[in-house]
Amino acid sequence: MARLIVNGTPRDIEVDPDTPLLWVIREQIGLTGTKYGCGVAACGACTVHIDGAATRSCVLPVSAVEPDQQITTIEGLSPDSSHPVQQAWLALDVPQCGYCQAGMIMAVAGLLMQNPNPTDEDINAEITNICRCGTYNRVRAAIKLAANGGEATQRG
Amino acid sequence: MNAIISISRRSFIIGVASTAGGMSLGFNVPFIKPALAEGAETAPEINAWVVIRPDDTVVIRIARSEMGQGTLTGLAQLVAEELNCDWSKVTTEYPSPAQNLARDRVWGNFSTGGSRGIRESHEYVRIGGAIAREMLIAAAAAEWGVPASECTARMGMVTHAASDRATFYGQLAAAAARMTPPANVTLKDPKDWTIAGKPLPRLDTADKLNGSQVYGIDLKLPNMLNAAIRACPYFGGKVESFDAAVVAEMPGVRTVVQVDETAVAVVADTWWRAKTALDALPVVWDEGPNRQVTSASIAAMLEEGLGANDAFIGAEQGDAGAALSAGGRTVTATYAYPYQNHATMEPMNATALYTPERCEVWVPTQNGEASLAAAAEAAGLPVQQCEVHKIHLGGGFGRRGNFQDYVRQAVSIAKQVPGAPVKLIWSREEDMLHGAYHPTTRCRLTGALDADGNLTALHMRISGQSILAAVRPEGMQNGMDPVVFQGLVLSGTEGTLGYTVDNLRIDHAMRNPPIPPGFWRGVNLNQNALYVECFMDELAHAAGVDPLAFRRKLMAKHPKHLAVLEAVAERIGWDTPPAAGVHRGLAQIMGFGSYVAAAAEVSVTDGQLRIHRIVAATDPGHVVNPAQVERQVEGSFVYGLSACIYGECTVNGGRMEQENFDSYEVMRMAEMPDVETIILPSGGFWGGVGEPTIAVAAPAVLNAIFAATGKRIRTLPLKNHDLA
Prior knowledge:
The complex is a heterodimer. In chain A, a hairpin with a 2-residue loop joins strand 3 (47-50) and strand 4. Chain A is built from 5 helices and 5 strands; from the N terminus they run E-E-H-E-E-E-H-H-H-H. The mean pLDDT of chain A is 95. Chain A is 31% helix and 13% strand. By secondary structure, chain B is α+β, with helices and mostly antiparallel strands. Chain B has 16 helices and 30 strands. Chain B has 3 domains: 38-208, Aldehyde oxidase/xanthine dehydrogenase, molybdopterin binding domain (Aldehyde Oxidoreductase, domain 4, 2-Layer Sandwich), CATH 3.30.365.10; 216-288 and 348-425, Aldehyde oxidase/xanthine dehydrogenase, molybdopterin binding domain (Aldehyde Oxidoreductase, domain 4), CATH 3.30.365.10; 295-340 and 437-720, 2-Layer Sandwich (Aldehyde Oxidoreductase, domain 4), CATH 3.30.365. The longest helix of chain B is centred in the first third of the chain and has 23 residues, at 122-144. Mean pLDDT of chain B is 94; it is low at 1-40. In chain B, helix 15 crosses helix 16. Chain B is globular. In chain B, a hairpin with a 4-residue loop joins strand 9 (157-160) and strand 10. Helices cover 26% and strands 24% of the residues of chain B. In chain B, the strands form 8 sheets. In chain B, strands 13-14-11-21-18-19-20 form a 7-stranded mixed sheet. In chain B, strands 1-7-6-5-4 form a 5-stranded mixed sheet. The chains are: A alpha+beta, B alpha+beta. Chain A: It holds the Pfam family Fer2_2.
């Protein structure tokens, strides 16, 4: 049995303690916005927030999460897609297939919480999620749009 | 995007409890035989392509699969353009493969590959929209008792100006559905388009921002089980035995099944438990005949082909053999292109429900009809007793079209637990080990230069793997695989060589290693462009001529090829010096019906490559959504440069060595250059967009690396080379 707080709601879950948080979120809690991509924390598709910090959930055993920690998934980032990162993504029509985008958005939201105005170098260092469709340039532009409160800016 | 629910008698709402955020994750899945002939329950179908609801919502049917490439939005724009509807009221849905079959393939081909989604179907979907428009006009005219010729349709409304009457489409739809479709319609001239041709936002973005987009891997059905699979990692190997008893009592495990000759699967209540048990399952493999196969043995096989006497000729002009042995100056180089995995972000998966009477499959597929055929075959049921529900794809890139291995596996597993839906998900490791790999080829090029530095002869010998021989033998022509010569042939509309060489021979010594090849975004254009465009650069340098000027001399009869090349050269400032330490390279090719070119600016410092800037130009004839073209071109550099820098699957002991993204690296944000896209639609033809640009990414960058370092990289990937 594990107690988790997911998107503000406490959950008591029957689960093997070694189960990665990702699969608890997807299979026990039923929130499938968080994606499986690699299972080795290499691609970032599984990124969620734990107490506000972007975390790759595919290698984190559920037993490593404390009962009072706040887990936020893409479904809980905002009630209505109104988070500035989601809004910037919408404005620039960032996603292609979209599969990596939940993890990408969560990683970026985490970055902006810690660093509201990241430089290109900050973005390069912190946003290492894999996108195979090739949305990187729009992701970068959308990060800057979100950081500037919705106003577009030049790269640099 | 919904599945078509209006023609399903009943449907299940599959969903989960909403979270504190209050978001519903409901998913509507048609679950039973579609009752096509019954027509609509909720809204009339004007024709196969258009349904209009009483609230004026226009539902446009999309036969091709959306996997990120934007086909869904583009096809909807084309229908909406002719329909003269209100774009803000447009939504879309997929007809199912069984529905297509039952209606004599009214929606045409479902296959979504070869950058054909729009270019192959633009005409009949526009006709579909135009016919629906005329039926709506006819319905209004009949109701008002006026000639249809006096009525006009615009923005979702039919108007009869003379009597000052107007009605919205939603009010006309039921009557329009009963009208006789006109035998002929006239399509608009693209220059008059107001919906098509415009950079409209995608229709499918919102759900991708909040977790509500359902991919195949996310599917939930009542009483669903989950399966994890392991196929023999050795190509050509089989399952010899496995000891199910070892894992039978593990948590959640329902059963352990042999899927087919090559694979075993564990079925459990959750996928994680199925995978955990699978990892603990003792399996003995019959390792098959290929344990001695390595990348080195494959390389030797291909090297032999480079000098072989027999080869299929794909392009010939003059007498290259005689011209090359005439004693003038020659240049020779040998290039090599490795195996690569598609590595879609969403691993392969399919969900199947089997009963002795019926089989249904839910699957992210690039070809719903191929999925249906695979399901029927695996189920051993007539195709009329099967159905496939197309689910949004987390990437396709060619892996999910021709190849339906995951569908057959899911059905085979489901047959062993009849009555329960089973979702099969491949692990990333399974995905990497059982790809339909970009084929490996090598190429030896020999060119002759005259005293003035003109190219007088060229022989291009390709040695290596045929995709068609392995996966679509019916496409072979007297033993030759014509697709091997993508972008290199002398005539046709798909992809011609952009150079005139008086003495030319391009031939292929087919050498097929026992590794399964597949169509990989860009297919054979990728390596062919690399070979031709890097070698052109080599020839130009050997001749002491600027690479652009050298090409220009050979391109007089190829104005469209030249136009895109000139466009990127001009934009990047080819005639002006780059910034200190920055060097440039060029490439062009024609493929998938479009003309593309790229110019790259790179620097190499202490062996570290940095790609600063890419300029790309595309002439696809007509453009349906320029914003979408830009996205595809930008994305092409991620895919193409990932292949150039990292992409390599190596074979050892008869199996692939790379199992995940930690050993199969791909490009990330930090390495991504700026990409500027120039769209040059010259009209008069319809070319594809999703693939061709990939092919110019690597040669443009490699030519720039030569300019920077003097090093010719002739073997991909770059990670294996020291640029210092």
